[in-house]
Amino acid sequence: MSTPSTTPALEIVGARLELGDGDARVHALDDVSLRVDPGEIVAVVGPSGSGKSSLLAVAGALAKPDSGIVRVHGTDVTALAKSAATRFRLTTIGFVFQSGNLIAALTATDQLRLAARLAGNRTADPAALLGSVGMAHRADHRPDQLSGGERQRVGIARALVNDPSLLLVDEPTAALDRASSHDVVRLLAARAHEAGVAVVMVTHDHDVLEHCDRVLEMTDGRLGERVLAA
Ligand SMILES: Nc1ncnc2c1ncn2[C@@H]1O[C@H](COP(=O)(O)OP(=O)(O)OP(=O)(O)O)[C@@H](O)[C@H]1O
């Protein structure tokens, strides 16, 4: 029997996803397989339109592949009905978006409180989480009072509020300068390595790949391991 430590955080086997109609039909995912274990941070790179967002959508139970298996922490998310998939996402998967995707009117603390409430989590500790991403001193600030890097840190804290097994991260450094980009990806890597969260990060930013355990490359819907140049 498998134990929690040996259950992959994410396991995709032979996923195929076609999008569009007629001549515009494309293989967004073409026989994609991927295993990510707890504590790993994996980067996915590749040209625009190669299928990276589709991979995150399928991994995050936002889209069902036409065929193949997607297990998150042992649960086959392709078998879940829509409402069950939503519930599963709220409790097991964290999402981090390009610019933090924060709500303009809410302070950092309230961003986390709202996320916890939506997931029915009464034990979340927003203050401790903001402290863990170096944002305790900005707890009462709204997004427009924060720098891009600080917004991204709050976005990461919010994604962690429900203690997810899997963190799916889409272009977290797109709006950041070089120093903030390194800080944010270093932070993600630390969460993976210290808290055992599995992180899958889509990025165009080759500068930050050094912080990742593995780099995968998508080309025309296919996923391959990429060997980093020394
Ligand atoms: N809703 C849709 N209908 C039709 N085709 C789509 C749809 N969404 C994406 N596609 C196509 O599927 C392929 C994969 O798109 P996807 O967004 O996953 O790529 P990507 O690597 O994330 O691109 P980018 O880096 O530009 O965000 C592309 O050819 C895209 O044009």
TrEMBL record:
InterPro entries, alphabetized: AAA+_ATPase, ABC_transporter-like_ATP-bd, ABC_transporter-like_CS, ABC_transpr_LolD-like, MacB-like_ATP-bd, P-loop_NTPase
SUPFAM superfamilies the record matches: P-loop containing nucleoside triphosphate hydrolases
Superkingdom of origin: Bacteria
All residue ranges annotated as the ABC transporter domain in the record: 10-230
Keywords: ATP-binding, Nucleotide-binding, Transport
Signal peptide range in chain numbering: none
GO molecular function: ATP binding
Pfam family, one: ABC_tran
Name under which the protein is recorded: ABC transporter ATP-binding protein
Organism in which the protein naturally occurs: Cellulomonas alba
Native organism taxonomy: Bacteria, Bacillati, Actinomycetota, Actinomycetes, Micrococcales
